[in-house]
């Protein structure tokens, strides 16, 4: 059904007024905050396989920072439109972080290196394409369907900006959360004053001894739980409990009497720990559940998808050639001219075809570029439309990426393109489409905010293009630092291939004072798994280099637990590529996960949230659940509506906890990379009573943090969330 523009709607700043908007200070501050929140969002995604919207906290910080600068130096007070430019430029980093974190670590799981140039190229291309492809849809979704598409986060952000104009909002709660989250994380993981994670066996009962309960008292996880709310947090912890208290003990029980390893495991189940059972078997069940949950979320949104495509085609047919950018249009209805949008899109497509992103012959490069354009525009449209109805947090980007990857791999198989380089091409296509879809949804939210406050669309579009470009540049370095900090090497025979490596290897690597050749195995061969191996003079694999993100090892050679990031999506995407293009996949376990997701969906529960809980360790989902419980208590006592909760002190505090904890985590990763500096600030020790003596301090510190969040959330004043009168 078509919708006409709302003739009665008047923005906060009328089109007849032209206050300062696209100023240097606004773009600079927005880009800086975009880089900061982009890096923290990437860290958060690697921890919990999700991100949270950055627009509202960036808007709050913009208001307060500009107000502080005005008072301190006598500068002109920032206008609401300048604050809107800051949040627009600053929001790009979070959406790019999601796409980079979801796809790029899969490179290492397929046996390739994680090079900065590829990550940056994928980030830039996906980020800019998502914005450019959304611009022609602005009138259809933002203007003509103003009443039909509420864009929850965009509307909430506009409310924050209007509140800030009145002077009722400040960033004290964000800064408080930032400080508490950062200091807590540095004390816990930097100085190691208490353990960053603990786990305990539930019981010693025979046949159930592998059941464990684990907890990671992390401020970022507490903040995530508060923001996503009690329902999703409960569903996620339910998935974690199923894994720890049912699936792992059940596999251990039935496998205890086996006298040989059960594939894909490489040692007997009776000799495995709970973590090894989860890594060898439950990981594939979780991957199947996540894939099915993503597909089901897309099927649930299928009516919206079809209506989005139909509405977009109608809007494009009826749009003026200039795309609203002509001088005669009102200020609030001027986009970047359609000619420039088309030229920029074609330029990016040409860059894709000419770059090393697609390592194939000219035909393969053109085919890859065409697939990116087709899938990109399809899912940018879908993402922009769905975001308008259910918001960014529920946008099924993972499902769209799964669909892109499945279709791309199937097309390649039909064409006979199944070599190692085509696995890399398939992942690169999916990565660009994933980032474009994510950034397209974010752009639509920003343009909705601008529509409500009376911004100039083309100025917003320029701001988010600049913000996306600068944020994309730092993503690769951040990802590499986090991976290198927790990369592990192993010389256990069970971790190494038994086949000889090729004799013509040229790349070398120094390890423990000895030079080895590097064997990048990008496809399974004679039972050898894809990965990076160090080869000795006899061409025999001597070491496995296991990545710090999504690595397959759970314990070191000495038996110590390995700390690593384990997001669900990279393993899932690598599994899909392996399964379709090489057939080397434990399909039985994957199908079990798919059936589990379908059963959960039939029971009326979000299959995707539950599946992510199954995949992630219970130590991650349990503190998220605590944050969700705090949100439940606050909402019931204060009787907040969902709209109030979006801008409440508790949400602002949680955002600060996430940002502060995440940036502290990146700083700690740098300390780990510089090993000597990391040891210099390590105050950990083993008490006489063992690790148990650390348990109470860890829980006590986390309880103090949780009580602080509860107190701040309950202390907020409702009048501080009321918007100002329009000028």
Q: What can you tell me about this protein's structure?
A:
The strands form two sheets. The protein has a five-stranded antiparallel beta sheet, with no helix packed on it. A two-stranded antiparallel ribbon has the order 1-2. The longest helix has 34 residues, at 420-453. The protein has helices at residues 24-48, 55-73, 80-103, 106-109, 116-134, 138-143, 152-166, 172-190, 219-228, 230-255, 274-300, 302-318, 338-354, 362-390, 397-414, 420-453, 457-485, 568-581, 587-602, 607-615, 618-638, 642-646, 649-673, 675-680, 692-715; strands spanning 198-201, 212-215, 488-490, 508-511, 514-521, 531-535, 541-546. The chain has a domain at 488-546. Helix 11 crosses helix 18 (568-581) and helix 15 packs parallel to helix 18. It has 727 residues and is mainly alpha-helical. It contains 25 helices and seven strands. Helix content is 63%, strand content 5%.
Distance between the termini: 35 Å
Number of helices: 25
Structural class: mainly alpha
Instruction: Tell me, rounded to a whole number, the average pLDDT.
Output: 84
Largest sheet: 5 strands, antiparallel
Sheet with most strands: strand arrangement: 3-7-6-5-4
Helix percentage range: 55-70%
Tell me the fraction of residues in β-strands, as a range: under 5%
């Amino acid at each position: 059904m078509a919708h006409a523009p709302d003739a009665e709607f008047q923005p906060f700043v009328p089109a007849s007024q032209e206050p300062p908007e696209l100023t240097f200070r606004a773009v600079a501050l927005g880009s800086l905050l975009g880089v900061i929140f982009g890096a923290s969002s990437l860290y958060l995604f690697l921890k919990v396989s999700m991100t949270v919207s950055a627009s509202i906290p960036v808007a709050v910080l913009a208001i307060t920072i500009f107000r502080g600068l005005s008072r301190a130096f006598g500068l002109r007070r920032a206008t609401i439109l300048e604050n809107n430019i800051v949040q627009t430029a600053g929001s790009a980093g979070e959406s790019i972080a999601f796409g980079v974190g979801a796809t790029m670590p899969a490179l290492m799981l397929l046996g390739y290196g994680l090079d900065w140039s590829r990550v940056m190229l994928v980030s830039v291309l996906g980020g800019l394409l998502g914005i450019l492809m959304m611009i022609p849809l602005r009138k259809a979704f933002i203007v003509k369907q103003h009443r039909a598409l509420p864009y929850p986060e965009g509307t909430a952000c506009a409310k924050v900006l209007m509140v800030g104009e009145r002077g009722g909002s400040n960033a004290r709660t964000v800064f408080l959360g930032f400080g508490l989250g950062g200091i807590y994380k540095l004390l816990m993981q930097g100085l190691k004053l208490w353990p960053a994670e603990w786990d305990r066996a539930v019981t010693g009962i025979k046949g159930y001894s592998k059941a464990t309960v684990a907890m990671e008292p992390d401020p970022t996880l507490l903040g995530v739980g508060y923001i996503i709310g009690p329902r999703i947090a409960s569903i996620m912890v339910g998935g974690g409990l199923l894994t720890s208290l049912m699936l792992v003990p059940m596999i251990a029980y039935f496998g205890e009497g086996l006298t040989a390893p059960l594939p894909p495991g490489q040692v007997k189940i009776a000799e495995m720990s709970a973590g090894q059972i989860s890594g060898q078997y439950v990981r594939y069940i979780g991957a199947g559940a996540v894939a099915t949950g993503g597909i089901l979320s897309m099927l649930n949104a299928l009516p919206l998808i079809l209506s989005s495509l139909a509405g977009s085609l109608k809007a494009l047919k009826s749009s003026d050639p200039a795309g609203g950018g002509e001088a005669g249009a009102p200020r609030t209805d001027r986009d970047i001219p359609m000619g420039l949008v088309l030229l920029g899109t074609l330029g990016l497509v040409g860059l894709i075809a000419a770059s090393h992103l697609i390592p194939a012959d000219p035909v393969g490069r053109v085919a890859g570029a065409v697939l990116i354009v087709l899938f990109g525009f399809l899912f940018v449209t879908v993402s922009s439309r769905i975001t308008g109805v259910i918001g960014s947090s529920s946008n099924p980007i993972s499902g769209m990426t799964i669909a892109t990857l499945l279709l791309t791999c199937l097309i390649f198989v039909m064409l006979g393109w199944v070599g190692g380089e085509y696995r890399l091409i398939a992942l690169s296509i999916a990565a660009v489409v994933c980032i474009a879809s994510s950034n397209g949804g974010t752009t639509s939210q920003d343009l909705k905010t601008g529509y409500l406050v009376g911004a100039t669309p083309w100025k917003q579009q320029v701001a988010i293009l600049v913000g996306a470009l600068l944020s994309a540049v730092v993503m690769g370095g951040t990802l590499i630092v986090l991976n290198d900090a927790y990369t592990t090497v192993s010389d256990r025979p069970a971790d190494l291939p038994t086949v000889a490596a090729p004799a013509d290897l040229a790349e070398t690597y120094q390890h423990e004072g000895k030079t080895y050749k590097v064997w990048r195995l990008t496809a399974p061969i004679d039972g050898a798994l894809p990965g990076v191996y160090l080869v000795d003079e006899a061409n025999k694999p001597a070491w496995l280099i296991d990545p710090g993100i999504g690595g397959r090892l759970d314990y070191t050679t000495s038996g110590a637990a390995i700390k690593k990031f384990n997001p669900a999506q990279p393993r899932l995407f690598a599994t899909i590529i392996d399964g379709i293009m090489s057939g080397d996949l434990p399909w039985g376990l994957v199908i079990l996960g798919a059936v589990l997701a379908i059963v959960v969906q039939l029971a009326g529960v979000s299959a995707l949230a539950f599946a992510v809980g199954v995949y992630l360790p219970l130590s991650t989902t349990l503190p998220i659940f605590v944050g969700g419980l705090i949100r439940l208590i606050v909402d019931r006592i204060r009787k907040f509506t969902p709209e109030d909760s979006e801008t409440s002190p508790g949400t602002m505090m949680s955002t600060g906890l996430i940002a502060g904890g995440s940036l502290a985590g990146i700083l700690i990763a740098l300390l780990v990379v510089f090993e000597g500096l990391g040891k210099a600030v390590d105050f950990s020790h083993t008490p006489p009573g063992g690790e148990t003596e650390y348990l109470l301090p860890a829980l006590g510190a986390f309880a103090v943090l949780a009580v602080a969040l509860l107190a701040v959330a309950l202390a907020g004043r409702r009048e501080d969330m009321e918007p100002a009168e329009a000028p």
